[in-house]
Queue: 2 jobs
Job 1
Amino acid sequence: MNSLALMCIMTVTEGCKQESGNPLVKPSTAPYEAIPFDKITVADMEDAVMEGIRLQNEEIAVITDNQEEPTFENTVAALDRSGEVLNRAVLTLSNLESALGDTAIMNVMAKVTPHLSLHSTDILLNHKLWERIKSVHDTKGERKDLSPEALRLIDETYRNFAESGANLEGEKREKYRQINQKLSDLTVKFGQNVTNEMSSPNRRLWVTEAETAGIPQDIKAAARSEAKTVLESEGKTDDESLYLFTVFSPSYTPFMKYADNREKREELYKIYNSRNNGGEFDNTQVLKDIANTRLELAQLMDKQNFAEYQLQGTMAGEPSHVMNLLEELRVNYTEPMKAELKEIEEYAQKTQGKNFKLMPWDYSYWANKLKNDRYAFNDEDMKPYFELNNTIQGVLGLATRLYGYTFKENKDVPVYHPDVKVFEVYDADGSLLGLLYADFYYRAGKAPGAWMTEFRTETKDDQGNRKIPLISIVTNFSKPVGNEPVLLTPYEVETFLHEFGHALHGLSSQATYASLSGTNVYHDFVELFSQFNENFLTEKEFLDGFARHYKTGEKMPEELIEKFVSSNQFGAAYACMRQLGFGYLDMAYHTVNEPIQDNVSVEVFEENAQNPVRIFEVVDGTVTSPSFGHIFSGGYAAGYYGYKWAEVLDADAFAAFQEEGVFNPAPAKRFKKMLQSGGTVDPTELYREFRGKDATVDALLHRDGIK
């Protein structure tokens, strides 16, 4: 993509506007009707959202004004297929907000979000539309010609409307609108505060050469480059003795693991864990407002709390089932976690003295030291085998081995940033499945972490013609410095495998209707496909296909893989308890039956919520909630448990492959059916068909070395 096109995206410039019309509104002329990133401006995105709202309102009016008897075709299917322009505009805008972090895009998102929220509420509370949907639902038994997918769409559409206030009357309907609008504004504010805080100068740690002792050279080089970039951007003279570490994962994680300087580890830990707790981007009141507004919504819908309301339409079903899972894991993992911490502390005391007390900023560092000692293993030992380009081929090749998929890079499809690669993805029979956008490198402004998303959902028309999905995976891997190759840690490869699993879910979809396509499944089912992929990280047969030393070309030794497995099992109890801490916190905020008062301390609330699964004593000034984007702005409210729920599923599912052979076509064929089905089948039924039984925690306990 040329620099002018990039400028058109990054800056609102009327000169870049297309004279022939908004490129996000008219049909795309890009290959595969992909998003024309080389033509759109920020202004186009804003205009397309507003035009998309107008066009979908017209489409809804056609449905509600229809004088014919309500049918699946003229009501439910027509509703599912409405809003094509709006969906394209919103997906483009929201995805670029996260991937680019441009202020102009963020401003547009903040500007259009209230309109989007109101539009969504207007549809859900459209009485004439609801009456038609209800009529179709109530008479579906009379239609013997409807497919199982059509019946599923009727049921899910009916449930979605009913849970979204369609049955409300009078003042309650208006109250529902107001609550939705308020929640929309609050969640956007929370998310943008998190993003802005990550890049704040207050979230940086400047260190000298001496203070980088223990840190691998490639990490130091990246920190030196970051320091140079920031100093120059601030108009200051570069100081080669300074290194800059930040709260972004590629910087924060290795510093906490390798830096010998305990005081600096403590300092960066506190910088990271005090985000959005006071200051310009404070979220403490915002999160209480979100929790209270969600409670108000739930009680308006005759539910005791938000979790009870939110867990409708999930595999878990109700809060008690969530807590039963979390409790079962707590019981199994608490004592192994305590044993791990005791062993690490005693190991550190051998050199630090008997008075040494293990603190949270010590865990990664000393656990890594002990792993090296006990297993002669260091994450850095695996990095030379995970050169990025080879790893890309290897991870994509997993889908080839399992499902027969092939990938071909296409440099003609427009991209939103020069770093992005696009791959055509083909099924085993040669048919095109979709496009995969891959955005691997960290850059300033990019949201932290990694994620999968889409620019277009897979659908089919009435003649069965398939519109291919446009799927994207985004990570924050370190960018090459000079001619040095990018070498990934095993955990970065695990992240890649995870997001690729989500991508395969979207690419594999063979649904007809967008609402049931790809990753549009119950949220506690969706992580199965991503977490399943992670299991292959320790499979020698998989690794031999690509994990070769970037200098010697040698395969990764079996001994190194075994050491990695053993070292991972050592930290498994700690990792599980940490995840349980997030799950307990999420459920605490969303099972309150009374509003959280303004004078309630977020720190105290969080401490009380996490006490059953506490790992370390609370450190003054540190708190998770104000930056917990997953539950306050990321769609995981009363749903963070889903990671562990899906982990139970993925361990149980991979056990089938271990029983039959990890690359045996039989389980792969059954698993591929789940990938293709999207939300067209109830996930409990879909999983039972794959496995022949319900999942239990046994496979997870075995994998983690607990049993």
Note: The beta strands are 204-208, 242-246, 406-409, 421-426, 432-441, 451-456, 459-460, 466-467, 470-477.
Job 2
Amino acid sequence: MSKRSIRVGIDVGGTHTKAVALDNDTQEIVGEAIVMTTHDHELGVAAGVIECFENCLTKNNIAPEDVVFIAHSTTQATNALLEGDVAKVGILGMAGGGLEGWLAKKQSKIGDIDLGTGRKIETCHTFLKNKDINAANVDREIQKLQDEGAEVIVASQAFGVDGIEDELLVKQEAEKKGLLVSVASEISKLYGLTRRTRTAAINGSILPKMMNTANCTEMAVRKAGIDVPLMIMRGDGGVMDITEMKKRPVLTMLSGPAASVMGALMYLRASNGIYFEVGGTSTNIGVIKNGRPAVEYSVVGGHRTYVNSLDVIVLGVAGGSMVRASDHKLVDVGPRSAHIGGLSYAVYTPEEEIVDPQLEFFSPKEGDPDDYVRVKLANGKRVTLTNSCAANILGYVKEGDYSRGNVESARKAMKPLADYLGVSVEECARQILQKAFEKIEPVINDFAEKYKIERDQISLVGCGGGASALLPYSAEAMKMNYSIPTHAEVISSIGVALAMIRDVVERVIPNPTTEDIAAIKKEAAALAIKNGAVPDTIEVQVEIDAQTSKVTAIALGSNEVQTTDLKLRCDETEAKRLAAESMRTDPSEVETLLTSDIFYIFGHKVGNKQQVRLVDHRGFIKVQCGDATAGACKAKDWEAKTTELWNEMLGYKNEMVQTPDIFLCIGGKVLDFSNTLSLEQLTTIMRSEFLDADPEEEVLLISSRTEIQ
């Protein structure tokens, strides 16, 4: 039998750890496994990762040599910070003399870091002037920190991003003493000593716990005969080699939501949308725009860091959220869930048990309100009413859906609450979902405004086992499309399996030149290669923040040379159907504007505007615009064509210039140049893409008007 190529993704959730094995060529699921997450095991969550991985292979007859990629998400960094399971950090600050030294000493002495949960990261501090930095002095200062109880050392130097040698000397001397070290300028290349030091301290505080987990997991993978690198999910949607994770574990914060969005991107061909990862207790809500997840700096205990992670809002409303009622009115839904209350969902209770249901009110945890609803049955058992119960009653959960339960059980159990409210069972269920929706609606609206996504382009994307408990009602209420994938309950594991290697370089560069852009792109690509990406697969996206002069290069690549399976190729008819579906119109109303070997660009006139969709040969909608134009030219003529399209879509409103968003298709890549403030800035960034291009190569361009009506 010919050797298979298998990608394995493992997602560590709060309750379950799930593994999925995908055929690398077809992306079909060929194996699954699920175990309880092992929070209390001596190996921590690593034990569950190992067990789940081994089960997935053995139960599905997958040979170790078939595995070409293995990655897992982790809740460990987030949980360690939430629970205060952190090490004491000793900070060695460094700077020049005079005023610079006085300021740096103050700025690097950040004090204890409040984690916002009643817990904190303890820090201690010492300082060296640059002229005094040598091995002996560094060793002496590290010993001082050790004597104060420091378990991990942070090396942080003013302007260390311009030259990291002194910080690396601290690392070298600390490691001689058997200490773990967090090097500030390895984590972020941005100026801002206080924030960079704080980020490094947070990173250092979780190093011991994360190193233990990483070593145990890696050892188990090697023992199983897997010799490909073990990848770890980052909070920004990419993966990194476990060796890099051991240096920068803080980058794994929020890797669970990151896993779900990557699954949504790959499995639902999501382009512009609000995605929901709906569990039993909480829901993570975030944004996909033009096929990319929205990313921001993480906040820990109210403190901003230099750690990139998905821009996610966590709501205490989900599939298992319990109902609250008082004075014959529905008060709220959540934040406590059936799991927290130690109760079964009525909808998953056998109908024959729902006998003589009696309404009760209770407090799930000490200090909670006592208006949470539960139902006592004749047999003495107590169950509770949830969003999942309401959604099943109203028909939003279809046969075969993961959240599908016994509708009659839910109806019988909800009758006492409906009587208490003086309404029908259906109206009671509707009120429950409406209360949940009232928490969700402002989040969707805020994201749409923040990321300038036009409402008619928004689709709601559901992930997680509880997706159908919330999504259909919310979409109906907001008159939006929605989709829930076939494998919604394991979409996070799929996302881990399909994730790309990612690394980010950020620099403060006033008035960057084309050479500056090319240099930072090269640096980002080199980091991705170091993490295991094959050079030919790497794409680098550059963004410039004109207000802060921050230049960001984001490199994405694969750990293997990817080939296109013709079975997965999408022809023009199918691509047009997908574009029409996205535009909410009939394919006969859609015009093919431009095509290439890899891309199709479609347009649909609505009044004096033209909707545009860019679809690739796999059927993924890579760009969608509400009002745009498109053009093609040879690489040698890119600047003239870009200028033409820029001017065509340039807008003015209230005496303000509204610059268009430009997208470039070159060499199989789609590059997003949105949010540039001037044509000069745009051409400076774009020019770096054409330095090595064939002058006769055809490129495609899209220019989109940014005005939101």
Note: Confidence is low (pLDDT under 50) at residues 562-567.
